Every structure is written in structure tokens, then in C-alpha cells.
Amino acid sequence: MEIDRDRGITVEGKIAGWVENKVDLWIDLVLHSEKVAVGSSKAIFNSANKPVISDHFGVEVVLK
């Protein structure tokens, strides 16, 4: 099953205070108590999908 998703970056650049400081990470999880089919997943509040409101972007998931 194909899932519609973007590149998934939820933190751009380096993260202050991290010893091993990689850049452009996906550090969010979406948890559900049952197995569900995902239709799409994208990072939001990243200026591409909605205005930036924090240095840590959100994730929008649409379930089938």
C-alpha cells in the first residue's frame, strides 16, 4: 500500500544541546492503540504547509 508523504522533516538545522547533532530530522511519532491504514503523512507548520509557529514542526496524518 502506497502512502502519500512528504520528506518528513520536523526539525530543520541543528538541535541546541544535542551532543551528536545531526540536521533535518524527523523526531515525531504518531501512535495508535490499533493497527490502522495511513492515507497520508506530512510535516506542517514548516512554512511549506502552514506558517511556522515553532522551531519544531507538527505532523498531520490522515487515516484511511
Structure description:
Helices cover 0% and strands 23% of the residues. By secondary structure, the protein is an all-beta fold. It has one domain. It has a three-stranded mixed beta sheet, with no helix packed on it. The N and C termini lie close together (11 Å).
Task: Provide a short characterization of the protein structure.
By secondary structure, this protein is mainly beta. The protein is built from no helices and three strands.
Features:
single chain, 64 residues, mainly beta, 23% strand
How many structurally independent domains? 1
What's the mean pLDDT score?
Answer: 83
Number of helices: 0
Name the shape in a single word. Answer: globular
Strand order of the largest sheet: 1-2-3
Main beta sheet: 3 strands, mixed
- Order of SSEs: EEE
> Could you estimate the helical fraction of the residues in percent?
under 10%
Our estimate of the beta-strand percent is 15-25%
Q: Gyration radius, to the nearest Å?
A: 13 Å
The end-to-end distance, rounded to whole angstroms, is 11 Å
**Helix and strand composition category:** mainly beta
Oligomeric grouping of the chains:
single chain
Low-pLDDT segments: none
How many strands? Answer: 3
